[in-house]
Amino acid sequence: MRILLSPDAAGAAEVAAAVVAASVADLAFPVLGVATGSSPQPFYRALTARVAAGLDLSRAAAFALDEYVGLPVDHPESYHSVIAREVTGPLGLDPSRVHVPEGAAADPTEAAARYEAAISGAGGVDLQILGIGANGHIGFNEPGSAPDSRTRVVELAPRTVADNSRFFDGDAGLVPTHALTQGIGTILDAREIVLIAWGESKAEAVARAVEGPQTTGLPASFLQRHGRVTLVLDAAAASRLSPASLPAEAAR
Ligand code: F6R
């Protein structure tokens, strides 16, 4: 896995935006995989600045990683709302090409199959943006998820419910217990992956993802199977990596 370091989250966001802008430059109709949560927020702002400076994403399609089950789509913390607010509008994407799993569908299992078909129909994801949970989840693939898992309904881990309560007035009781998420296999089908992590709370998960064994206990460890993954980290998120894992200039 390629690792790019920056001193802080704002710097990491700029680095990630540069990587993504370079990757989509040659694609007539880029297909992006987009994450929600706090990790990519500075990155979306950095990419928005590039759009203002001329980067054209109006022909890009986007597929969100996940959506809560049981939350109305117009709830401000539904990922439909978050993606519209933080991604579609600021980046100038065409809303008709932006897809979020239908967590509010009457039959979420059927919605999961439709989502997989929509990704395939778009030709697959060119570039997937990821965050990482403190427990090593990617998307909402919690510990125990299989590396060949596909889009499906999952139960959120207690740690994830607690972590995400900050988006629900600090009340864990308001956080949905289930979600519809792309599987690890779905994520690994993307042609390129850029994972953004900043802050000390991610340091252990990052170190285990990069240096640990591939294990269902740490879902992000399966990223080791992918040939084109870039981790963009701030110093705190990289703080538990061994010097051997760090870019040469940082290890000196
Ligand atoms: C979000 C997602 C999650 C988050 C992860 C980190 O769509 O799939 O895997 O990336 O929970 O969340 P933050 O960035 O809020 O720490």
Structure description:
With 252 residues, the protein is α/β, with parallel strands linked by helices. The protein has one domain: Rossmann fold (3-Layer(aba) Sandwich), CATH 3.40.50.1360. Helices cover 32% and strands 17% of the residues. It is built from eight helices and ten strands. It has helices at 9-24, 41-52, 79-91, 108-121, 158-164, 184-188, 203-211, 248-251; strands at residues 2-6, 31-34, 61-64, 66-68, 98-99, 127-130, 152-155, 178-181, 192-197, 229-234. The strands form two sheets. Strands 1-10-9-6-2-3-5 form a seven-stranded parallel sheet, with helices on one face. The protein has a three-stranded antiparallel sheet with strand order 4-8-7. Helix 2 links the parallel strand 2 and strand 3. Helix 1 (9-24) crosses helix 2 (41-52) and helix 2 (41-52) packs parallel to helix 3. The longest helix has 16 residues, at 9-24. It is globular and about 50 Å long. Bound molecules: fructose -6-phosphate.
